[in-house]
Amino acid sequence: MMPAARESLLDAAYTALARRPWSAVRMVDVAAAAGVSRQTLYNEFGGKDGLARALVRREADGFLAGVDRALAAAGAPHERLTAVAEWTIGAARDNALVKALLTGCWSEWLPAPAPAAVRSVAVVPAQRRADGPLPSPADLLTLVRDRAVAALAAPGASPVDTADLAGACELVVRLALSCVAAPPGERGVGELVRAVLPGHRPA
């Protein structure tokens, strides 16, 4: 199957999930919405569980891609970390799967594929990857923290005290996750980020 067709199937599954619980999403409806046969859908994902794993994996990858975009933007360290925090809060607000991945709270509405790897018989590389272990909230926190440290400590990046950089980046991620449950006040998340980043604490 062409990657575009796979994406169409995942888009169709995501759209269906916005309208009804995962338990009520039918493979035949997903295939029809994507313009392919149900057999094509089964050939690609192996079954509904495989489709769920692929969908969850895609949303995790999309979240991390947004983190990378925020870190790649020009600006001082606190501005880039603020962008990461704002992206995290917004992604969790707008995407129930991302929120579940970040918090570990899966409602009955959502698919809840097993986090451990499953035996894969897929010939599709993308599905073999989806059949691997899915990231836990702790995994995602570590991935975001490490991406932030690498971006802020990279040659040519704005100078920052690297002694506490990893700890500060982790605090920012944890701060963003706390704001998913309790949104920041009128001052926004930027002032909170400045308070935890070394060298940028307000006087």
Structural class, from helix and strand content?
mainly alpha
Q: Name the beta content range.
A: under 5%
Global geometry = elongated
Measure the end-to-end span.
Answer: 58 Å
Structural description of this entry:
By secondary structure, the protein is mainly α. The protein has helices spanning 3-19, 27-34, 38-45, 48-72, 77-94, 96-103, 125-130, 137-152, 165-181, 188-196. The chain is elongated and about 55 Å long. The mean pLDDT is 89.
Task: Produce a short descriptive summary.
By secondary structure, the chain is an all-alpha fold.
Question: Which terms would index this structure?
Answer:
mainly alpha; 10 helices
List strands and helices in order, with pairings.
Layout: H1 3-19, H2 27-34, H3 38-45, H4 48-72, H5 77-94, H6 96-103, H7 125-130, H8 137-152, H9 165-181, H10 188-196
Helix pairs in contact: 1-2, 2-3, 4-5, 4-8, 5-6, 5-9, 5-10, 8-9, 9-10
